[in-house]
Amino acid sequence: MSLLVVGSVAFDSIQTPHGKVDGILGGAATYFSVAASWFAPVRVVAVVGEDFGEEHLRVFANRSIDISGLERTGGKTFRWSGEYAGSMNEARTLDTQLNVFERFAPKIPASYLESEYVFLANIDPILQLHVREQLPQARLVGLDSMNFWIHGKAEELKKILARVDLLVINETEARMLSGDSNLKRAAAAIQKMGPRILVLKRGEYGANLYAQNSIFAAPGYPLDKVHDPTGAGDTFAGGFMGYLAQTGDLSENSLRRAVIYGSVMASFAVEDFGLRRLLTLDPGQIVARFREFKNLTHFDV
Amino acid sequence: MSLLVVGSVAFDSIQTPHGKVDGILGGAATYFSVAASWFAPVRVVAVVGEDFGEEHLRVFANRSIDISGLERTGGKTFRWSGEYAGSMNEARTLDTQLNVFERFAPKIPASYLESEYVFLANIDPILQLHVREQLPQARLVGLDSMNFWIHGKAEELKKILARVDLLVINETEARMLSGDSNLKRAAAAIQKMGPRILVLKRGEYGANLYAQNSIFAAPGYPLDKVHDPTGAGDTFAGGFMGYLAQTGDLSENSLRRAVIYGSVMASFAVEDFGLRRLLTLDPGQIVARFREFKNLTHFDV
Predict the structure, then answer these.
(1) Which of A144, A196, B10, B245 has the smallest set of CB atoms within 10 Å of its CB?
(2) Which residues of B touch A220 (CB under 8 A)?
(3) pTM of the model
(4) In a 3-state reduction of DSSP, which class is residue B212?
């Protein structure tokens, strides 16, 4: 089943203790769609500038990602620059140039309108709501957001929250959104705002899934070396929703497996800069790491 | 099989967002032995002062903990005072009065000498080594330590590390001890120092077990309210070693279950101040929460 993502496509400049890259392809919609493309057909709605070349379009084409909704307009593509230090859990933003992303008005191509799985990556909640309204028949709508909108557009965010099935945010954002420092209580408060499924991302500690009546805890994958955490959260969301779109199974068991597939994809993403590792995977490696997650958490009762 | 713990017995004064208690029974050996007593016979080596009354001795007696090795001497019992705020992951020490603990010289009663399971709680590594040498036949020797000894008595700590089977420390301590910020590499470096089994405690995020050839990740138990984190680490160690002493099974499967039983006991401990919850448990509650941990982490392959 088809999976639609609306979000940013960007050029990133990144410095970590393991190296430095300049102007590589990134952005939430990019990481999401590449990760999800290992599971299901993906469609992208995003905007890029005149500096977006054939080589960048090929990245999507090579993964069979539908970019009919990728608008190319005058001006420059969104650029972000940041660095990671120490335990590398948080990026320090050095520079943000919104460029064409500043006036992003998502246009959904007619061919996308029957998409059953939709992910609204982190953009202005007004735009997220606008997209949501054009896709009333979607079976599962997922949402990401961030502190900037939680503080700056709380009312608009609440409106879109009431219209989604799934929210994928990190712990800090969950505490901010709910006003509660205890995560179990925060999760319950957020689920009352709309999303019946909540995934709390915990960085190197993994992710927790709050479903209708149960909690599922997935660990982080222990890695010798984290090269670049950029896009890990969007990659997680891509693996998660990609798996659900592939199977069409929204049972709790399936949601749990989706969390693990999201974690699998994120664990690959951080092994190298940008999209490198996600583009050189093969299905066998994905399955093998899924089994490693099982071995990492299994105990006999 | 009998389990021996050497460590502190103290009076704690604790303030958390949920209340305040003054001079309640605490200390590493206390939390450890009470937690372990739900699984196996426990023996304590510790020192207390003249202010240690019948009511305190009764706490151990009621749990059938052997206190032949609890030395009562002139002076006052070790007193600690601290507070927790915010996410409550770390205590702020307000006052420490070592009192009789300052000259603690652990004496192992003859009746303890055949103990097969030994836990050396966080005390001076010189004393830990001294105890270890008196128990050459022990089947499993576990160790705890802290930043104070890692920095101040590095050489002495390395000597005792080379003589133990198990080390239970938190992530920050593991990074300090190994000099590596990456936990997987840190774990490998620490295992080379001696302990073939390493448990890294991660506070609310649970614990990771590094055994001979595999890693096991146990989540933290999601709680609505954490009343008091004091003693959670020692309680974890007590549940962990108590389970191993009960079963006598040191297979990897058993070590994994031990991590879960340690997590179960720690999750109870923090539900109320001091030892309150650990003293009012029943075996059915322990088994039920063990199953909840299974449900929290299970997914179908």
Answers:
(1) A196
(2) 217
(3) 0.95
(4) coil
